[in-house]
Specification:
Strand content: under 5%
Number of helices: 3
Structural class: mainly alpha
Order of helices and strands: HHH
Distance between the termini: 41 Å
Number of strands: 0
Helix content: over 70%
Amino acid sequence: MPDKALLTEAKAIFDQASVSIEHYSGLLGQVQQLIVDNFGENGLYAAYFSLAALSLLLVWKLIKLSLSALKYMVLPAVGLAVIGAFFMPYSFTSLLPVTATGCSLVLLFKG
């Protein structure tokens, strides 16, 4: 069972954040009031925790996508362009767009 002081502190933090956000958009206050009217304070806490979990999931997916792009597109494209510039008569700058396109196709098909 969560500590009562922790819940009141979390509610104070969320209320302070919602006041600053509500300054820019009145929609949040309406949604918050709708949740409180239909589900009570516990429903509001559940909505906050669900929103936090979805935000963490979104951040995790963006980090995973960035690392995947770095691993399967950026590093191989630069490496292939360097190797191609060493063995072929083309410069690094002319080979990089070609290798980046090829590596982005690999990333696309890899999923």
